[in-house]
Amino acid sequence: MLIDQYDPLKGQMLQILDKDGKVRKDLEPKIEEDRLLLAYKTMVLTRLADEKAVRLQRQGRLGAYPPTKGQEGSQIGPALALGGDDWMVWAFRELGALLLKGVPLWRTYLYWMGNEEGSHFEPQLRTTPSAVPVGSQVPHAAGIAYAAQYRGEKSVVMCYFGDGATSEGDFHEGLNFAGVFKLPVVFICQNNQYAISLPRKQQTAAPTLAQKAVAYGIPGIQVDGNDVLALYAAATEAVQRARRGEGPTLIESYTYRMGDHTTSDDASRYRIEKEIAYWSERDPISRFRIYLRGRGLWDDQKEAAWQEEASRQVEEAVKQAESFPPPSLNDVFMHTFATMPEDLKVQLEVLGKELDSSKGG
Amino acid sequence: MAVMNMVQAINTALREEMERDKSVVVLGEDVGVDGGVFRLTEGLLEKFGKQRVIDTPLAESSIVGTAIGMAMNGLRPIAEIQFMGFIYPAFNQLVSHAARMRNRSRGGLSVPLVIRTPYGAGVKALEHHSESTEALFCQIPGLKVVVPSTPLEAKGLLASAIRDPDPVIFLEPTRSYRLLKEEVPEGEYLVPLSRARKVREGSDVTIIGWGAMMPQIQKAVDELVKRGRDPEVLDMRTLAPMDYSAIMGSVKRTGRAVVVQEAPKNCGLAAEISARIGEGALLSLLAPVERVTAPDITIPLPKAENYYYIGPARIEGAVERVMSF
């Protein structure tokens, strides 16, 4: 088990694909070729969709948005280890993970454009809405897993959060609960080195975030977060452990946010150029592409074709999101409760009349 | 029918709902082996096992947070917070997630969750064990807040809360736990949410209250009736969403209202009720609405609780003031 071999307390970090795309043959995970290509294509699509979202925001066509550039491997590697019945509980910067899970891109755009319908996922996707209050989704993952275990299902819950979340009480409470009841949860901490402006070293005195698992009596492993193969390998072990009833695992995905915290942020206020250059050489997509080429699964022609197709999908998604009808007044009232209370019906009616008479606001 | 106090009635409701529906589970601090610090969950562990009666780590945010996850994945959790004064670490989970999940997922996910917690003063308890902060929860769209006042009411309201598709904060008046006994039916007994109960029919003033204030109101009413007054009494029992039409109907007939609230005055529910009466029944009013509330101070420890806690004398005084306006 990789999880037993890489001890975060000894500063060991799992890497299978190095920054130049060279693979460690002894650790190379066995993944079906179509799954490998799916992962790669989704990473490229994520990059393009993310860049588009930032441009849309600059044009005033989309609201504040948290760019995901640089974290495509960190998101898609773990998600590739999930089965169709598994759950995904995420924070807010997981565009890549959502795409792999099957959430349509236009819905994600719709959410960031400011429409609640963007958080309405098909039930079979088993995906929660975003959780903007940092770390607050961690106990939900434990609860979802408890319910699955209670019914004797074999489904696993994958829960994403960032380095900043590890300082939150809910991180502690959620991992503690999952540990006590041996729940089938895989915790993915995307350590992208910054919580808005605060560097990882000021978040905790602990040398790694993975080692926090020790205190909860569960395994923890630090993984190169820009190495999609290593993340897949570690997450696969964690998912299998969870499915066997052996409990949760904490995976620290050591990565880097190439963009700003959100489009409202200016990362140049707290980051240095040298650091960005260092991480640019460790891009998750380019090293994975080199690996796929080496295996004869990818070439320039396929790359050009996929870039074109992915761009087309992005444009199509933008069109779909922008043509989605805006919410009606009734829409914003109707899901407060399963059945609208009498008093709320009156408020809806009165507000409707007031808005009509003032021509909308 | 068995004669029960409120503890027994709630315990019975929990047991019967767990028998009826396998998705109902109970979780919280000391709810299993110990049967709860007030013995509300006594006997449940033995009957339903530790998978359904979950002794959790001592962590309120994750008691509510994990219950939200359970509810999103098909269970109907009943989470106990040991005292209302300890609910605040879980406030984020209630406000940011439980209350909003249905709306933000456009009905895709719901949180059929009950949070049970004892509340209120008058029991000479330790610090942080006497809070009555229901108004904090009533302002959050998407949360229901229910407060029973008698054993029979407690059974019927709790069963309805458990079956409700939305999150319910179920506040149990600590002082009333063992205060009175009454006949409570075994088996199915439901009291609908968001419907006030007319405790007494009367003609010259409407006294509005809930929870642990109801026995105090009753004492005041006994005295007022002796003096020839004829008050109408409403037990609101669901504080959010509240049955304002019951209030309007009553005040339009009586022309006077006294709202009794155990909590401090500022921004309390009594203020909201008073404003609603102003909006809906102003022309029927013969006197300004009176509020009987605690002062805006930190609730004192037992040696000074008598200054704080509302008894019948203050309620009678308020009624006399509106009658003689």
Q: How many independent structural domains of chain A? A: 2
The tally of helices of chain B reads 12
Radius of gyration of chain A: 21 Å
- Spatially, the strands of the biggest sheet of chain B line up as 3-2-4-5-7-6-12
End-to-end separation of chain B: 46 Å
Can you tell me the CATH topology of the largest domain in chain A?
Rossmann fold
Anisotropy-based shape of chain B: globular
Strand order of the largest sheet of chain A: 1-7-8-4-3-2
- Helix percent band of chain A: 40-55%
How is this fold's topology laid out?
The complex is a heterodimer of chains A (361) and B (325).
Chain A: H1 2-5, E1 13-14, H2 33-58, H3 72-79, E2 87-89, H4 95-101, H5 105-112, H6 138-150, E3 157-162, H7 169-180, E4 185-191, E5 194-195, E6 198-199, H8 212-215, E7 220-224, H9 228-243, E8 249-254, H10 273-280, H11 284-294, H12 300-322, H13 329-334, H14 342-357
Parallel strand pairs in A: 1-7, 2-3, 3-4, 4-8, 7-8
Antiparallel strand pairs in A: 5-6
Helix pairs in contact in A: 2-3, 2-4, 2-11, 2-12, 3-4, 3-9, 5-12, 6-7
Chain B: E1 2-4, H1 6-20, E2 24-28, H2 44-48, E3 53-55, H3 60-72, E4 76-80, H4 91-98, H5 101-104, E5 114-119, H6 134-138, E6 144-146, H7 151-163, E7 168-173, E8 182-184, E9 197-200, E10 205-209, H8 213-226, E11 231-235, E12 238-240, H9 244-254, E13 257-264, H10 269-281, E14 290-294, H11 305-308, H12 312-323
Parallel strand pairs in B: 2-3, 2-4, 4-5, 5-7, 6-7, 10-11, 10-13, 13-14
Antiparallel strand pairs in B: 1-8, 6-12, 9-11
Helix pairs in contact in B: 1-7, 3-4, 8-12, 9-10
Question: Can you put this structure into words, describing what you see?
Answer:
The complex is a heterodimer of chains A (361) and B (325). By secondary structure, chain A is an alpha/beta fold. Chain A is 45% helix and 9% strand. In chain A, the strands form two sheets. Chain A has a six-stranded parallel beta sheet with strand order 1-7-8-4-3-2, sandwiched between helices. Chain A is globular and about 70 Å long. The mean pLDDT of chain A is 97. Chain B is of the alpha/beta class. Chain B has two domains: 2-184, 3-Layer(aba) Sandwich (Rossmann fold); 197-323, Rossmann fold. Helices cover 36% and strands 20% of the residues of chain B. Chain B has twelve helices and 14 strands. Chain B has helices at 6-20, 44-48, 60-72, 91-98, 101-104, 134-138, 151-163, 213-226, 244-254, 269-281, 305-308, 312-323; strands at residues 2-4, 24-28, 53-55, 76-80, 114-119, 144-146, 168-173, 182-184, 197-200, 205-209, 231-235, 238-240, 257-264, 290-294. Chain B has a seven-stranded mixed beta sheet with strand order 3-2-4-5-7-6-12, with helices on both faces. A five-stranded mixed beta sheet of chain B has the order 9-11-10-13-14, with helices on both faces. Chain B has a two-stranded antiparallel ribbon with strand order 1-8. In chain B, strand 10 (205-209), helix 8 (213-226) and strand 11 (231-235) form a beta-alpha-beta unit. In chain B, helix 1 (6-20) packs parallel to helix 7 (151-163), helix 3 (60-72) packs parallel to helix 4 (91-98) and helix 8 packs across helix 12 (312-323). The longest helix of chain B is centred in the N-terminal third of the chain and has 15 residues, at 6-20. The model of chain B has no long low-confidence stretch (mean pLDDT 97). The interface between A and B is large, with 45 and 48 residues.
